[in-house]
Amino acid sequence: MYAYDTFDHAMVNARVAEFRDQVERRMNGELTEEEFRPLRLMNGLYLQLHAYMLRVAIPYGTLSADQMRKLAHIARKYDKGYGHFTTRQNIQYNWPKLSETPDILQELADVEMHAVQTSGNCIRNVTTDQFAGATADEVADPRPYAELIRQWSSFHPEFSFLPRKFKIAITGAKEDRAAIKWHDIGLVVKENNEGEIGFEVLAGGGMGRTPVIAKTVRDFLPVQDLLSYLEAMLRVYNEQGRRDNKYKARIKILVEAMGVEEYTRQVEAEWEKIRHIPIDVPEEEIARIKAFFAPPPLAVLSNDVPSVDELASKNFIFKSWLANNTGAHKVPGYSNVTISLKPHGGIPGDASDEQMDLVADLADHYSQSEIRVSHEQNLILPHVAKKDLPELWQKLDEAGLGTPNAGLLTDIIACPGLDYCSLANTRSIPIAQMITERFDDMKRLMDIGPLKIKISGCINSCGHHHAGHIGILGVDRRGAENYQILLGGSGAEDASKAAILGPGFDENGIVDAVEKVVAVYLGEREEGEEFLAAYRRLGPDTFKEAVYGAH
Amino acid sequence: MALINLTGIQPTDYEVLGEDASPSEGATVAVPLKRLLEVEDAFFATAGSIGAIIDTETSYDALAAISDKIAFAVIEFPAFGDGRGFSLAVRLRKDYAFKGEIRAVGPVIPDQALFLLRAGFDTVEAVDDRKEAFEAALERFPAFYQTDFGGQVSVAHARHSGEGQRKAS
């Protein structure tokens, strides 16, 4: 993991002092609410329906056990004993007091964490593959580059007042688990024919009311040119992105309006002018950051572990957990374990302080003190020896963290919705709860197989419904909560936009609709065909008929 | 209004030229950039010193025609959140090697003091009671992650130079 040096410490501490001063000036009236708003947002502090919400950055979703303990401590001391892990690999606290937020930030700074740029019209926390540095299907660990971008984008003098928020995602794996094509900028680590590492660069993806899948701007960008190229991309956007309408202010609208060829031409022209000035960092700096992400020293072990097979043959739940919640590691004999924060009937992404403390202890014991957060709102223990899996599963299960549903229908992404959010039209969490209760049967879920449901309580799409195999969008219909169903989206390397199937439903109706869609799939699927593939083969009509046909 | 001096430059004492007025002999005047693009060379010859008033709708291409004819630039922020003002200053310094004073006018706030300095601004026009807050904000950060136009070298470079290693130890 990256460790701060004196520079990093000094800057984060300075930011805490600055924010403390901003809060004081707001409280004594020196700053108007209008002036304070972007300042608090740039430090992750929102005003929601009932209270302030503090969004804490977990850069590229990587945490140490000690950092997780601090998150638990903050949940206990300053909040109501829980936190909410988000689709941007961050954590949100829903009940902090404004006057206490500077103290929370100081506690975070003590463990090399912050809330810098987790909101506001600036470059947000860079997200990545939750299995980065540990997965078998990876060209290179993307996290050193994410850290490079974190530093370059922090307190950027030119890009702190962009037309709109700006999200960058990076992956180093063939399978895209970071939804990079749905980001303002997506980066794919790749190797060219000469064996050099670089990036495919994409731009202009985004959700919201105008879903757009990012387009390729450059096939191969050498590593040493990363920051100057990003600077050129941001400058063209900062200058020409629309500022007259916040719904048309994201880079996706600019790239659509000028065309990706023209955007690329302008970026390349600007890049040619700036690549000789010291924006890019010295090679020694890249090497310095990379060293922090050196793979842990794992002794190669056997992939055949009789104790694991034995428990799996006797216990269906463990067998399911093994199939869904563990994945191939780079090193033989190890797994990456997904801890589901989606208990059936529970709130997607929530974890209590006790659960966070337990995960920290388990990380110390089983996963080199490392923890990851996925954009699907789960936690990951990387580098777990296969022989430890039965014991680890038992400990997780006892704490309500053993739900074996990673990647299945009940592993739902849901936005906070009307339970917390002032922008929402509808509630999202209760819909997720109703669906997971309806499908609370592991045999049935295993039979259905991989299926991603994503729920947003308004068109802003924080619940990624555009990218759901089944997407659910909450809308206000003459004052009543109404839920539309969308099918066929994907956030993976085969990214696609989900399409609305037909008129919306009330909360019971939407759960029935999901069940009917699943029934069509089960009836029509070919041998080994997953839901998304079946939908793409069948098209919407078969599903439409089942959902709307016979009333 | 108070003038905040970010860089220690000798600030320009100018008047904003009336809409249809001509500059008097040797005067120091600020003129909207759009007008400067249309006037004859004699206009520049008469005045002692001319500055361009640049609004944030200005495309950086438009700076090319006037950057070597003006002595100073006044960038107008219509709102403090309009970040185009920062890029305009960067363009003047970077693309046109502009050495004159760049001033920010409009509702910029003290918390932007370092961003302004680092994007290439020299001075800021602010309401009187905010002078202290601006000056305090300038002292806020001990180091920076980007090399900038205020003369700061990025931490990434400082870490690997003799000076940076001393600072970090």
* Alpha carbon gap, first and last residue of chain B: 43 Å
Distance between the termini of chain A: 56 Å
Largest interface: A-B, 45 and 44 residues
The largest β sheet of chain A comes out as: 5 strands, antiparallel
> From the structure provided, what is the oligomeric state, counting identical versus distinct chains?
heterodimer
Can you tell me the overall shape of chain B? Answer: globular
Strand order of the largest sheet of chain A: 1-2-5-4-13
**How many alpha or pi helices of chain B?**
8
Helix content of chain B: 25-40%
Number of β-strand runs of chain B? 7
The biggest beta sheet of chain B is recorded as: 7 strands, mixed
Instruction: Average the pLDDT over all residues of chain A and give the rounded result.
Output: 96
Mean pLDDT of chain B: 92
| CA-atom Rg of chain A in angstroms | 23 Å
Task: Characterize the structure shown.
The complex is a heterodimer of chains A (551) and B (169). In chain A, 38% of the residues lie in helices and 17% in strands. Chain A is of the alpha+beta class. Chain A has a five-stranded antiparallel sheet. Chain B is of the alpha/beta class and 169 residues long. Chain B contains eight helices and seven strands; from the N terminus they run E-E-E-H-H-E-H-E-H-E-H-E-H-H-H. Chain B is globular and about 50 Å long. The mean pLDDT of chain B is 92. The A-B interface holds A 5-8, 10-11, 14, 17-18, 21-22, 25, 30-31, 35, 38-39, 121, 151-163, 235, 238-239, 243, 273-274, 277-279, 281-282, 284-285, 288 and B 59-60, 80-84, 86-87, 90, 94-95, 109, 111, 114-119, 133, 136-137, 140-148, 153-160, 164, 167-169.
